[in-house]
Design brief:
The structure is a single chain. The chain has 362 residues and is an alpha+beta fold. The protein contains eight helices and twelve strands. The longest helix has 53 residues. Bound molecules: 2-acetamido-2-deoxy-beta-D-glucopyranose (NAG) (6 copies) and zinc ion (2 copies).
Length: 362
């Protein structure tokens, strides 16, 4: 966790650094509305998203009567004169860009009681605006508008028209639009990545665990099958045995009839097969090929779980039909092994598994 934690911390630091830096490039447009009564006594309202909030401005809404400085339109100097003050109804100072810093203009208007300061751009700059930087004049609404719009309002005010101006935030712009959005995105990305990595690790571990369990189970079942095979009755067929006489009696594994001298294994369900044929089968499947009877259960070798084997041989019985013969091998499939308890004490004569059998007894 130590190394991972360090990486996370580093990534977070980088992200917060980027966000702080990118915040400088983010700017908000301002919606500027002017309302006045024109010479034919009609109320005119004009509305555009053409302003830009200063970097240190309050992102608030303000409204008031547009007021120009009485002398220099730049509104510079320590004490420019406005026709309104703090005890007047709310008013907005409209000053021209240039001749002093934005902070000076804004502070001068603020000290005289302005609700907000609107700076219009220099002559012949069209509708263009820039983001003002005014670190010495915070906590006031400061917006820049284009020269064309600014001059229009200045003309109206100079003609004696009372112009009401309403300013409000428009939309954020910038390389990453909004720092909060970026924060949200990076955190979401982080969470999603962490979740998928955790999920993947969990999945791999559980798959590995199950595979391991399955393998161990298989190995255990195989060794149990070996023990069970050792306990099965083995006979050598003699001339005259009924199995050798009947053409219909076939070994279901190799589909061959029995001949005298062949060694056969008798399963707990009384079905017989060639010893060489049935033993590999039983090692793999542990059931009679004909009636599906489970030799482990029948012999009582199996002690516990058979349920937790991941992949179980499908329960559907494959009915073996032997060509030529009638329904010789038709065995009730649903019927469990008709295991005779006496069969369990079969005389031991399977030499191949003597060792296992000794181990089981000891
Ligand atoms: C404009 O309206 C005012 C009343 O609202 C009225 O007194 C004035 O005469 C009108 N002026 C013109 C030019 O219509
Ligand atoms: C005053 O405004 C009305 C409505 O916007 C307009 O129709 C009219 O021409 C304007 N009058 C002048 C003198 O601009
Ligand atoms: C710039 O401001 C100073 C006062 O601070 C004033 O004397 C000067 O005339 C102004 N210049 C222009 C071009 O307005
Ligand atoms: C504000 O202006 C009014 C006149 O418009 C004046 O009577 C008043 O003294 C001024 N108040 C301040 C604090 O300057
Ligand atoms: C400035 O904007 C107005 C509309 O807001 C537009 O009619 C005018 O053509 C623009 N002027 C320039 C120079 O872009
Ligand atoms: C200002 O008033 C004069 C005449 O009084 C007029 O010619 C001019 O167009 C007006 N300007 C504005 C911007 O209304
Ligand atoms: Zn066989
Ligand atoms: Zn059987």
């Amino acid at each position: 966790m130590g190394k991972k934690g360090q990486h996370c911390l580093l990534l977070l630091l980088c992200l917060s650094g980027l966000v702080r830096r990118s915040a400088a490039f983010v700017y908000w447009t301002a919606i500027v509305e002017i309302i006045y009564v024109n010479s034919s006594n009609d109320t005119v309202g004009k509305y555009c998203e053409c302003g830009m909030y200063g970097r240190n401005s309050d992102l608030t809404t303000a409204s008031g009567i547009v007021t120009l400085p009485m002398g220099d339109p730049h509104g510079c100097g320590s004490d420019p004169v406005y026709s309104r003050n703090a005890s007047s109804p709310p008013w907005i100072a409209l000053v021209k860009r240039g001749n002093c810093t934005f902070s000076e203009k804004i502070n001068a208007a603020k000290w005289q009681g302005a609700t907000g300061v609107v700076v219009y751009n220099v002559d012949s700059s069209g509708n263009s605006t820039t983001q003002m930087s005014h670190p010495e004049a915070p906590h006031i609404l400061a917006v820049m508008i284009g020269n064309i719009q600014g001059m229009e309002v200045v003309g109206l005010v100079r003609n004696g028209t009372d112009v009401e101006m309403v300013i409000g935030p428009g939309n954020p712009h910038g390389p990453w639009v909004d720092p909060y959005w970026l924060y949200f995105l990076s955190i979401a990305f982080f969470v999603v990545t962490a979740a998928s990595i955790t999920y993947f690790v969990f999945l791999s571990a559980s798959r590995l665990y199950h595979l391991n369990m399955h393998r161990r189970n298989e190995r255990r079942l195989k060794s149990e099958a070996k023990k069970a095979i050792g306990r099965l009755q083995v006979r050598t067929l003699k001339r005259g045995d009924e199995e050798t006489n009947s053409e219909a009696q076939l070994c279901a594994v190799c589909i061959e009839s029995y001949k005298a001298g062949e060694v056969v294994t008798v399963l707990t369900c009384d079905h017989i097969f060639h010893k060489a044929c049935i033993e590999p089968w039983l090692l793999e499947r542990r059931t009679c090929p004909m009636c599906k009877c489970d030799i482990l259960t029948a012999l009582g070798v199996e002690e516990e779980t058979k349920e937790d084997i991941g992949i179980e041989t499908p329960p559907e019985a494959t009915v073996i039909t032997v060509t030529g013969g009638e329904a010789v091998y038709e065995v009730p499939l649903s019927h469990p092994a008709n295991s005779d308890p006496e069969r369990h004490q079969n005389p031991y004569d399977n030499r191949a598994f003597e060792g296992d059998s000794e181990a089981l007894r000891g």
